[in-house]
Amino acid sequence: MKNTIAVDWSGILLGTEDWSFLPEVAIRTIIMFLIIVIGLKFLGKRGVKQLSVFELVVIIGLGSAAGDPMFYKEVGIVFSLLVFMVIIALYALLTYFIGKSKRFEDMVEGKPTCLVEDGVYVLENFKKENLGSDEFFAELRLRGVSHLGQVETAIEETSGELSVFFYPAEESKYGLSTMPHSLKDPLKEITIDGHYSCIFCAFTEEKSPGLAGECPNCKHTEWVTASGKKRVT
Questions:
Q1: pLDDT per residue over 152-183, tens digit each?
Q2: What fold characterizes domain 113-225?
Q3: What is the rounded distance in angstroms from the CA atom of residue 3 to the CA atom of residue 152?
Q4: Where are the domains of the chain?
Q5: Is 175 helix (H, G, I), strand (E, B) or coil?
Q6: Which of 69-73, 99-103, 111-115 has the lowest mean pLDDT?
Q7: pLDDT at residue 124 tops 80
Q8: Mean pLDDT of the residues in the chain
Q9: How far apart are CA 75 and CA 24, in angstroms?
Q10: Which single residue of 109, 121, 179, 180 could bond 52 by disulfide (Cβ 3.0 to 4.6 Å)?
Q11: Is the pLDDT of residue 194 over 60?
């Protein structure tokens, strides 16, 4: 005699509720959707653009408050509405103090961080942001940067967006390539005259055949061939 495993499809599909709860879920969802729209309206345009860490916390809080009442019968909408009101009130209060105090703004939202200056990493800042080279290069490529010699300054904004300021095409220099796999096979010995970039800090200089030597900027000893391509606008 074969053993059969009973599958409780009702439990899988509906959990502990029954079909009669579905219309209530739809009504709850509509109400919470409208509350979210109204809440974001109160937050203003600041709350729906690129988010700072502070604004992201607010959005996550609103999302958490909205989710449970949509499908948990035991969670009342009034309590969720109270959570919304408190979060929005706190947001308005903190935004007021941010507008009054630059120090408070820096504490809550952080400061823009310079990551590249004159085509070279600002190492102290770069380490703080815990950015990997591949991730950073991908951001630069999306902005049309093929190597760091084209970049005068790159700044990470408080929203996490990257602002890039370029040298004029005729003033661009040799720099570390941002192309995929550009850091593969670094050299410690130079065989051909040319410009080479430190793979650790992007410092670039002209080298002759022989030992590559230490980077005067960061003291590392691994180099790759630099790129001198002009930026096409």
A1: 999 988 777 889 999 998 889 999 999 988 88
A2: CRO Repressor (3.30.240)
A3: 73
A4: 9-107, 113-225
A5: strand
A6: 69-73
A7: yes
A8: 81
A9: 12
A10: 109
A11: yes
Residue 45: its pLDDT value, please? Answer: 47
169-197 burial: b if 16+ Cβ within 10 Å, else e: eeebbbbbbbeeebbeebbeebeeeebbb
CA-to-CA distance for 109 and 101, rounded, in angstroms?
12
Q: Which helix (H) or strand (E) holds 5?
A: none
118 vs 57: CA distance, rounded Å: 35
What amino acid occupies position 175? G
Eight-class DSSP state of 227: B
Measure the CA–CA gap between 138 and 110, rounded to whole angstroms: 23
- Joined together, the tokens standing for residue 202 give 């992007």
According to DSSP, the β-strands at 223-225 and 194-198 are: antiparallel
- Tens-digit pLDDT profile for residues 38-58: 766 665 544 444 566 667 777
Cβ atoms of residues 41 and 4 within 8 Å: no
List, in sequence order, the alpha helices (H) in 44-175.
53-71, 77-100, 102-109, 123-128, 133-142
**Section 121-138 average pLDDT:** 82
**Is residue 173 within 8 Å of 166, Cβ to Cβ?**
no
CA distances in angstroms from 233 to 65, 145, 150, 174, 177, listed in the order given: 46, 10, 12, 18, 18
Residues 6 or more apart whose Cβ sits within 8 Å of residue 175: 119, 147, 148, 149, 150, 151, 197, 202, 204, 226, 227, 228
Average pLDDT over residues 87-114: 80
